[in-house]
Amino acid sequence: EAQVTQNPRYLITVTGKKLTVTCSQNMNHEYMSWYRQDPGLGLRQIYYSMNVEVTDKGDVPEGYKVSRKEKRNFPLILESPSPNQTSLYFCASSPLGTSSQETQYFGPGTRLLVL
Amino acid sequence: ELKVEQNPLFLSMQEGKNYTIYCNYSTTSDRLYWYRQDPGKSLESLFVLLSNGAVKQEGRLMASLDTKARLSTLHITAAVHDLSATYFCAANTGNQFYFGTGTSLTVIP
Lengths: 115, 109
Prior knowledge:
By secondary structure, chain A is mainly beta. Helix content of chain A is 0%, strand content 50%.
């Protein structure tokens, strides 16, 4: 089944404790992206990647890191989480970025609470 | 930075009625997307609109795009309860995507 998976689905942590949220897709998509969803703000793009070893900042990259060492994986790293990073996070993938006629396929989401 | 505005933010409508959700975007975009999100769930793609005048329909939902007005609409025909969800539009500049704040639709029997 074609899908985007994220782990963990739920995470409670404390300020300053490094964490990683994994994202994996099995559709051989070049483009992958991370978003955060907050009430009243819609989804905001954190980082995106056009291919292996190619990443770029989205609208709200502060406090986050990403890496793309393999095509299928795009982990989101919070080196020192703060309470304002409490949010619902979505990973998404798409073939060939915006040159494609296809849309983005979203993972199930990771709900993060930073105390 | 591209800004995407949706209205209304909240919509309560009776079954069988028609209504339209509006999506305005501030600068030129390659394409316009519509997504649906059910409570506690992920986003599901509804439509991708590629060019001026594009119209796509799926069941009771029809989306259109006017690139000159920088406006997309999502028209709901004869609403049914199953359409209750939050609807997002999104636009892109290059490889960056910008989402509207969403329209929470409740269809009342």
